[in-house]
Amino acid sequence: MAGHIARGDIKSVAPESWRPSNELLLDVRDADEIAVWGRLAGALHIPLFELRSRAGELPKDRQIVAYCQKGQRGYLATCALQGLGFEKVSNLRGGFLQARLNGLPSEGGPAD
Question: What domains does the chain contain, in order, with CATH numbers?
């Protein structure tokens, strides 16, 4: 994983310096994780295990930022999407938990 990022094969964004603008946020966690923790505001939910079969729901002409709880599944989603021909895709480093620690807006889940 680190090698792909270091070589630039997989793009990632750092939640401590990045703020969403017009990107599509893609939450690849399981539904039970979203029910407990919430999600980033405005994110589209497609679980990682459904991603290949539902990739047609995603725009290829818009930047996509994939995330999971801590980063591993977001990375896998980014790899899968690149393999399916998506060029504008990045992984949110550290996932949902790191994003919340860095103040990215979320909805649902426990109150702050």
Answer: 2-106 (3.40.250.10)
Q: How far apart are CA 82 and CA 9, in angstroms?
A: 10
Structure tokens at 26: 């893609």
Determine the Cα–Cα distance for residues 100 and 84; give it in Å rounded to an integer. Answer: 29
CB neighbour list of residue 68: distance below 8 Å, 6 or more residues apart: 27, 28, 29, 48, 74, 77, 95, 96
Q: pTM surpassing 0.85? A: yes
Distance of CA 21 to CAs 5, 27, 51, Å? 22, 16, 23
User: 3-state DSSP call for residue 106?
Assistant: strand
Longest dimension (CA), the chain: 39
In the chain, the percentage of residues whose pLDDT exceeds 90 is: 71
CA–CA separation, 106 and 31 (whole Å): 15
User: Is 81 within 8 Å of 51 (Cβ atoms)?
Assistant: yes
Q: Which residues are the active-site residues?
A: 68
